[in-house]
Structure formats: C-alpha cells, structure tokens
Amino acid sequence: MRILFTFIGGRGHFEPLAPIARAAVAAGHTVAFACPELQRPAVEAAGFAAFAVAPFRDPPARKPLVPVDVEREERLVREVLLGSAARDRLPATLALCERWRPDVLVCDEVDAGSMAAAELHGVPYATVIENASGTLIRPELVADATDAWRAAHGLPPGPGHALLLSPFPPSLRDPPADAVSIRPVFEPGGASGWPAGAVFFTLGTVFNLEAGDLFTRVVTGLRSLDVPVIVAVGNEIEPAELGPQPAHVRVERYVPLVAVLPRCAAVVSHGGSGLVAGTLAHGLPSVLIPMGADQPGNAARCEALGVSRVLDVIEATPAEVHEAATAVLTEPSYREAAERVRDEIDELPGPDHAIALLITLST
C-alpha cells in the first residue's frame, strides 16, 4: 500500500502523523509526506521521504507578544488555513497524487486542500485530529470556510473522509461519533542525561518567536524552585538572551520531548496540542500559559480535568509562575488527575490499529 501523509502547518501538525507513518513503514508499506518546505528537513530527519507543496507560513520571524484573541485565531483558521492556503495547496497536492499514485491519503485535521485533492484524484483519505480539545476546529467553522470553494471544484460539502483518527484520550477531547481513538505515541529517545524530577519549560517551535518578555518572566519564576529546571527556547533564539542562570537551570535551543518528559515532574508550556498530549501520556501535571491557536481551549480543558494551573500570558508575574509551579509539584491532586488520564491513554489501541483500518480503505 502506498500512503501519502499530508500536513499544512508546523511541527505540531507533523507529530500526530509520525507514529502512524512509522507503523506503516514497519508493516512494509510505502510512505511519503507532503508538507511545507520549511518542515521538509524535520520530516526527512525522521526518516521519511518528503515532498514540498504550497507553504502555509513565511520563514520564522520575531513578533511582539499580544493578548489571547480567540476571534483572531478563528479568522486565521477560516480565512487562511481552511481558505487561501487550502485553495493554494489543492492543485499542488493533486499534481503530487497524479505523479506519486497513492492508494490512500492521511491528512492532518486542517489540511482541507489535500483532502479535496484526494477526492478529485479518486482515492480515500483519513483525517487525523490535531486539536486536543476540539474547541478551535469545529464542524461549523470548517463548513463556513470550505463549502464554497469545494463547490467550485464540483465537490460536495466536506469533510469526505472515510476514516477519522483521534490521537487523544476521550476525556481530553470528546471524539466525534465517527472517530476512532488511538494512543499518542512518542518515539523512543534513548538515554537522555537530563536531570530527574525537573520542571520543563517550552513555548514550542512557533509561538516561541512571539513571546516578548514571557521567557524572562517564566524563567525568573521557575529558577527559585528547589528542583532542576530545563528550558527550551527554540532554534531561532540564543539561550544567552535570558542572561546568566543558576546551576540548576539549563537553557537550550532544542530539547527532544521523548528524552526529557520521562525525566520530568511537571511541565510549563503554552498548551499546544502535541505537548499537552505528551505531558499527559507521561502522567505529568502542568502550568499552561496559552498564547493563541488551539491553546486557550486546551488550557481550559486541562484546568477542568484538574491536571493544570492556567495563567494569563500578559498578566502572569514571576511570583505567580512560581506559585503555580509549586502547586502542581506539591499538591497530589494534580499528579493524580494527570495519572488517571495517562492510564486512559495507555488503554487506547496503538498506531498498528490505524494501519489495519487504512488497509480496509484501500481494498
């Protein structure tokens, strides 16, 4: 079976697809990715063939920190991700399908252009949910953004997937009735050398460049903790920008989640879907400081589950960061709640189950 995996955004859109792709390769299937040019090196470094198709983002650049604005994020999804970017992506993915001849596509949740390309090419496709809480990518928003341009290509209202996969536990995101929940898998990271019992702080690989003084405020609050602190600022930021740090605070550009999460006691982050899933898969409590995209909904859901404290991205002070981190480290209820979600995740079928379902689509 030839499987074309497609995603339109950044690394957070790639990571939910990677375990399924790896399981497909292990089962003897032929796999390739269609992705933005900026993400091709990461896909190839993970061991997959990659084709660059229409990009979604400009190259990374520093931007000012702004307050959370849910309406702004929904406009971005509607007008760009599911609108102009999807329309640009459709012909490029369709041409790739005609050249590479996949038996099935596996698309990330917002890659509507590639979904339409699959329909026009006449092959089935599966959709992999990448929004952990389901609060941003809603059916009515998708319909509003895509129905008109789909109709212009002779396609019915979407989506038209034959299979919907949710790599999140149902307690975190109540899956749609037609979704199949699978276990989020994080590839083995080997020996890490990271200190045990640490607090890990990251703002991901996109929002780290929109953080303003947030890194400084959070690190100032965390370095007074009596535990090791590991900070990942991203490849585009120089760690020295945060100034001298005490011996128990380690600032790096990039820290592999698979290496550091098994060593952690808690995580402080912006609440991106992949990081939330990884944090909970390891039974870890967290402090979430949502900045945009799906993060406000993810943070609200994690707070309701009792696994996280949530702070405001503009108003949070170092003292509030310290207090919230201390709470999730010392109050048993946070870890107990996170471990309940971890146990739920462990009971879900793995990526092999997704491959078995994909095989039925191509026959």
Written overview of the protein:
The structure is a single chain. With 363 residues, the chain is α/β, with parallel strands linked by helices. The protein folds into two domains: 2-183 and 348-362, Glycogen Phosphorylase B (Rossmann fold, 3-Layer(aba) Sandwich), CATH 3.40.50.2000; 198-346, Glycogen Phosphorylase B (Rossmann fold). 40% of the residues lie in helices and 16% in strands. α10 links the parallel β12 (286-288) and β13 (308-310). The longest helix is centred in the N-terminal third of the chain and has 31 residues, at 70-100. The model has no long low-confidence stretch (mean pLDDT 92).
Enter the CATH topology name of the largest domain: Rossmann fold
Structural class: alpha/beta
Mean pLDDT across all residues, rounded?
92
Order of H and E elements: EHHEHEHEHEHEEEHEEHEHEHEHHH
Rounded to an integer in angstroms, the radius of gyration calculated over CA atoms is 20 Å
Count of separate DSSP helical elements: 13
Main sheet: strands, sense, barrel: 7 strands, parallel
CATH class call of the largest domain: Alpha Beta
Instruction: Tell me what the CATH architecture of the largest domain is.
Output: 3-Layer(aba) Sandwich
Helical proportion? Answer: 40-55%
Give the overall shape: globular
Q: How many structural domains are formed by the residues?
A: 2
N-end to C-end Cα span? 9 Å
The total strand number stands at: 13
Uncertain residue ranges: none
Give the helices and strands, then pairings.
Elements: E1 2-6, H1 11-14, H2 18-26, E2 30-36, H3 40-45, E3 49-53, H4 70-100, E4 104-108, H5 112-121, E5 125-128, H6 139-152, E6 163-166, E7 179-181, E8 198-202, H7 214-222, E9 229-232, E10 249-252, H8 257-260, E11 264-269, H9 273-281, E12 286-288, H10 295-305, E13 308-310, H11 318-330, H12 332-346, H13 351-362
Parallel strand pairs: 1-2, 1-4, 2-3, 4-5, 5-6, 6-7, 8-9, 8-11, 9-10, 11-12, 12-13
Helix pairs in contact: 2-13, 4-5, 4-6, 7-11, 11-12
